[in-house]
Amino acid sequence: MLLIAAALIALAAGTLYAWSLYIIPLENEFGWNRSQTSLTFTITLFFFTLGMFTGGALIDKLGHRQIIWLGGVIGALGFYLASFADSLNWLYITYGVMAGFGLGFAYVVPLSTAPKSLPTKSGAVAGFITMCFGLGNLVLGTFVLARVIEGSGWKSALQLTACIFLIVTLASAFFVRPRLPGQDANAPKQTSNEWGYSMKQMLCTSTFWIYTVWIVSCQAGGLMVIGHIVPFAQEVGIVAAAAALAMGIFSAANSLGRPLIGMVFDRCGHRFSMFITPLFMMVGLAILGWGTPLFGFPALVAGAVIVAICFGGIFAINVPLILKFFGARHYAANLGLQGFTVFLGGFFGPQIAGMVKAQTGEYTYSFVIGIVLVLIGLIFGLLVKAPARI
Q1: Contacts for 254 with CB less than 8 Å, ≥ 6 apart
Q2: CA 375 – CA 217 distance, rounded (Å)
Q3: Phi and psi of 327, rounded to 5°?
Q4: What is the pLDDT of residue 283?
Q5: Rounded CA gap, 218 and 223, in Å?
Q6: CATH classification of 199-383 is 1.20.1250.20, yes or no?
Q7: Rounded to a whole number, what is the distance in angstroms from the first to the last CA of the chain?
Q8: CATH architecture of 1-175
Q9: Domain extents for the chain?
Q10: For 318-321, which contacts have Cβ atoms below 8 Å and span 24 or more sequence positions?
Q11: Cα–Cα distance between 374 and 225 in angstroms, integer?
Q12: Major facilitator superfamily (MFS) profile domain spans which residues (predicted)?
């Protein structure tokens, strides 16, 4: 039940990425431009990360169930109040700050609890949970909310999102219980065998900073291109429908890569998975950048699938690696802090690609810079060593 409840919370939290569904309806109704509406998602991502950090830091004081409930209420209230938005500031505060913070606050609990309960399969479990988070936009966004927006409008969709998130978090929280391997689910929590670095101790290790370079470089390098696949494809002569199809295939492969690379982590260890993931990502970026202009759609799909699997795998590596390197005692807090590196890579990667395109007029240099960034990550991945247990 723990895994099912964790998956449901992750699916509900994945509505974070459904923001793109609201952009055009809001712009059409209020006359806002793309930079103004895009800022909403940037704010949402930041406060989602802040919510993960805060929830992880408070989890031992407030309890797992209470964190999920509180996150569910804050997130649902944010979505509901956003349905009454008639100004950008109101939208930024409700959808960006409140909904973003609430989603992250609740999501950190299943993300940190499930892998810790099954340490020998932590990679596969983390991959499954993060896959569910990625599928949230597809399951709830594409199949549900998009139809509600088309039939009843964006306000109804936001109110439905609030109801779904509130119901899922309130109900699933009863089944997300921290448990050590071999411990009965109804037994009192035991922490005597747990070890781990505190957040301050983790920040003082070279391992944390070397690993941070790895994840930020790999993420930024991949996202430089991922966020621009559709316009790049159209630039080299691929029709819009085919480019959109490639993006859909990318999303599916991204979700598949999370449990796949998670299983590689469990079977082959962190060193192999941290090497093979950026290596194949560079291959995929090269196929995208130089194969697509020559071979068209087949190369676009091949490159997108390779990059997507590896990019999704980064998230599957991140969750169990923090547990393996820095222990279970302060795992939720440490994982929440590590979430800021995910935000950094996600923010700077697309921004760099956009600036390079604006300056040069083409995407070729974006692929070059992306490959270089991922190469830096690969090198730093070889330097990562597990710190001593304390």
Answers
A1: 134, 308, 309, 311, 312
A2: 8
A3: 85, 175
A4: 96
A5: 8
A6: yes
A7: 32
A8: Up-down Bundle (1.20)
A9: 1-175, 199-383
A10: 318/126, 318/215, 318/342, 319/111, 319/112, 319/115, 319/122, 319/126, 319/129, 319/130, 320/115, 320/122, 320/123, 320/125, 320/126, 320/262, 320/265, 320/266, 321/211, 321/265, 321/270, 321/274
A11: 12
A12: 1-389
Task: Give SS3 for 196.
Answer: strand
CA nearest neighbour of 264 among 276, 253, 246, 255: 276
CA distance 10 to 370: 29
**Residue 24, Cβ neighbours under 10 Å: how many?**
13
Token duo for residue 173:
């929280």
Using the structure block, give the residue that is written with the tokens 């974070």: 16
| C-alpha–C-alpha distance, residues 64 and 56, integer Å | 9
Please give the chain's pLDDT, 390 residues, in tens: 888 999 999 999 988 878 878 988 999 999 998 778 878 888 998 899 999 999 999 988 899 999 999 999 999 999 999 999 999 999 999 999 999 999 999 999 998 888 877 778 888 898 999 899 888 877 888 788 988 998 999 999 999 999 999 999 999 998 887 655 544 444 444 444 578 899 999 999 999 999 999 999 998 887 777 667 777 888 888 887 888 788 778 878 888 999 999 999 999 999 999 999 999 999 999 999 999 999 999 999 999 999 999 998 998 898 899 999 999 888 888 988 888 877 777 677 767 777 787 788 877 888 898 899 999 999 999 999 989 887
Instruction: Identify the CA nearest to 334 among candidates 129, 183, 111.
Output: 111
Q: Is 232:90 a contact under the CB 8 Å cutoff?
A: no
Residue type for 337, please?
A: L
